[in-house]
């Protein structure tokens, strides 16, 4: 399939006229027609004629110096507003909402010449780790459709794994890009807070929310991040820090110190996942990188702190949905939405705010120090993405606590703001993908890409596809 | 910790402006309880004298020119385009005051 190729190979192929943007778009729609009915990855599909018209235009207008994303089909998580295109956040509250403006990330991708072909299914408002908590039905895992895709950005990961698109944009508040990337065998980056503008991203927890790339390869994510990163006058929390030239950095083979915290490989983590991390460690070692064993006891408190701050912020963010100016009434929130709004309301309420919310904000300072200490001894941390494999459909939906614990290794990075890249690193005995993540200091995306690229040159986990994707 | 009872659940739902059925209140109370109890682990951390972190950008007072930004203005028609109830070019809102 053409869409097995990396983004740089696709860009090269278009320039050498070996295939056209029309071919790529047709391939996506073939996959969508074949699989979206079963897997439920996309909520809104752009009419095929429209996408093909954009592709024909791209084929005519392609110049050698165009963006590498020019003419490439992509998918946005349905949490990004797109003018004139229905945007739901997978919630019945917004089931007929047609935005009047564009998210900055969408504007930037349109300017790069990439072609939007769909809006992806997710846990409603980002609330979940399985993409089952959607008013548009659960997203199913392409490796075993009796299992969940992971969430909240499940639809994007499935669309990449099944070649419904060349790349996608997700959103990560506590693992929402990394968790489905791990469970679907794709690569995804939670960026440094502020690296990409959040303007037009429907908010879950504003001080944790990040907009990031998802694709087959780390190198692909680097190309997409280049197109979407940077300061935005419409988002005052976006960073003025200059954006690295990621492609140049990819080739660096600097020897690095990779830290492994023993707490991330202890009880409660599936043994096959522990083995995948150990194997990744050996692979990095064989490339000449140094492995540093360390201890980060605070990581065990990640979910507890996350589940005080994120619901507090979401209770405030979702308070604006009153059904007056847009959207439906508050009775339309899902069970999980209502639970998170109420947990946050409780954590912020008089008499409890000190014990819950304010204490958690102090713990956040402790997390920052814990990571600073770790990064004084190593350049990057290697850890699992999830403690267990993709569960069967229905296992997490009525178990709010188990759902929360799926995020055990992905909730501490967001309160700190640091970037973390999830990449495929193995398969379970049942053939389910396993992911590991590389976490680095603020604005170290270029180093994460570098390491992941080296790993993906040595391994083939990222090249394997679910059965039937031919 | 104080157990989240059905009464407390109903009170929180009222504060959050969420209309819940009695069945939902019964269902949510133990679920909220288990999550809140779990999050109480955070109180084991020694946070005495630690400053709170509310954001991680290191930025403050990001200002822009105090001018009208026409690129981000909606027309009246656009502003009203998603409202379920409008009247003479206005949003219709639920009454706050009762007779």
Can you describe this structure?
The complex is a heterodimer of chains A (470) and B (99). With 470 residues, chain A is α/β, with parallel strands linked by helices. Chain A has one domain (2-463): Amidase signature (AS) domain (Amidase signature (AS) enzymes, Alpha-Beta Complex). Helices cover 37% and strands 14% of the residues of chain A. Chain A has 15 helices and 13 strands. Chain A has helices at 7-15, 21-39, 48-61, 104-112, 154-161, 178-184, 218-228, 246-250, 271-286, 302-317, 335-348, 354-377, 400-405, 413-416, 445-458; strands at 42-45, 73-77, 115-120, 140-141, 144-148, 167-172, 187-190, 210-215, 257-261, 290-294, 380-384, 420-427, 433-439. In chain A, the strands form two sheets. In chain A, strands 1-3-2-6-8-7-12-13-11-9-10 form an eleven-stranded mixed β-sheet, with helices on both faces. In chain A, α9 (271-286) links the parallel β9 and β10 (290-294). In chain A, α2 (21-39) runs antiparallel to α3. The radius of gyration of chain A is 20 Å and the shape is globular. The relative contact order of chain A is 0.14. The model of chain A has no long low-confidence stretch (mean pLDDT 97). Chain B has helices at residues 6-15, 22-39, 76-80, and strands at 86-87, 90-91. Chain B has three helices and two strands; from the N terminus they run αααββ. In chain B, α1 (6-15) packs across α2 (22-39). Helix content of chain B is 33%, strand content 4%. The mean pLDDT of chain B is 93. By secondary structure, chain B is mainly alpha-helical. In chain B, a hairpin with a 2-residue loop joins β1 (86-87) and β2. The two termini of chain B are 42 Å apart. The chains are: A alpha/beta (470), B mainly alpha (99).
């Amino acid at each position: 399939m053409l869409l097995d190729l990396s983004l740089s190979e696709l860009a090269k192929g278009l320039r050498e006229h070996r295939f056209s943007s029309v071919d790529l778009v047709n391939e996506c729609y073939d996959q969508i027609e074949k699989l979206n009915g079963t897997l439920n990855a996309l909520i809104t599909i752009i009419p095929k004629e429209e996408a093909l018209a954009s592709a024909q235009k791209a084929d005519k207008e392609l110049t050698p110096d165009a963006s590498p994303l020019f003419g490439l089909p992509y998918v946005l998580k349905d949490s990004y507003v797109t003018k004139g295109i229905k945007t739901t956040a997978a919630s019945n509250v917004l089931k007929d909402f047609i935005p009047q403006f564009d998210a900055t990330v969408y504007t930037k991708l349109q300017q790069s010449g990439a072609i939007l072909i769909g809006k992806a299914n997710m846990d409603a408002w980002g609330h979940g780790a399985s993409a089952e908590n959607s008013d548009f039905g659960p997203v199913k895992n392409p490796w075993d459709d009796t299992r969940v895709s992971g969430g909240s950005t499940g639809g994007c990961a499935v669309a990449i794994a099944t070649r419904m698109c060349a790349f996608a944009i997700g959103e990560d508040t506590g693992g929402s890009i990394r968790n489905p990337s791990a469970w679907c065998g794709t690569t995804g980056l939670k960026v440094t807070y502020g690296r990409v503008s959040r303007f037009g991203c429907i908010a879950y927890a504003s001080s944790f929310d990040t907009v990031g790339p998802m694709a087959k390869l780390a190198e692909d994510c680097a190309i997409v991040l280049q197109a979407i990163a940077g300061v935005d006058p419409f988002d005052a929390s976006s960073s003025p820090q200059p954006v690295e030239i990621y492609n140049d950095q990819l080739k660096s083979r600097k020897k690095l110190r990779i830290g492994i915290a023993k707490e991330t490989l202890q009880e409660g983590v599936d043994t096959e996942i522990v083995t995948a991390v150990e194997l990744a460690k050996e692979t990095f070692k064989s490339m000449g990188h140094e492995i540093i064993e360390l201890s980060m006891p605070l990581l065990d408190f990640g979910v507890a702190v996350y589940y005080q701050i994120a619901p507090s912020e979401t209770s405030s963010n979702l308070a604006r949905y009153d059904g007056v100016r847009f959207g439906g009434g508050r009775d339309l929130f899902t069970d999980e939405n209502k639970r998170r709004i109420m947990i946050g309301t409780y954590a912020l309420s008089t008499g409890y705010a000190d014990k819950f919310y304010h204490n958690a904000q102090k713990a956040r300072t402790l997390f920052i120090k814990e990571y600073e200490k770790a990064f004084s001894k190593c350049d990057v941390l290697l850890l699992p993405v999830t403690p267990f494999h993709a569960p069967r459909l229905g296992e997490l939906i009525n178990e709010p606590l188990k759902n929360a614990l799926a995020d055990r290794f992905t909730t501490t990075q967001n309160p700190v703001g640091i970037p973390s890249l999830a990449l495929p690193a193995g398969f379970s005995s049942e053939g389910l993908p396993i992911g590991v993540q590389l976490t680095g200091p603020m604005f170290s995306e270029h180093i994460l890409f570098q390491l992941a690229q080296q790993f993906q040159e040595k391994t083939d986990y990222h090249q394997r596809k679910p059965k039937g994707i031919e | 910790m104080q157990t989240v009872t059905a009464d407390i659940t109903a009170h929180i739902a009222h504060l959050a402006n969420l209309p819940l059925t009695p069945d939902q209140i019964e269902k949510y109370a133990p679920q909220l309880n288990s999550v809140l109890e779990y999050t109480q682990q955070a109180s084991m951390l020694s946070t005495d004298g630690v400053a709170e972190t509310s954001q991680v950008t290191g930025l403050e007072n990001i200002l822009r020119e105090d001018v009208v930004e026409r690129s981000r203005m909606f027309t009246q028609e656009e502003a009203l385009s998603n409202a379920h109830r409008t009247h003479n070019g206005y949003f219709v809102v639920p009454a706050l005051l009762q007779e």
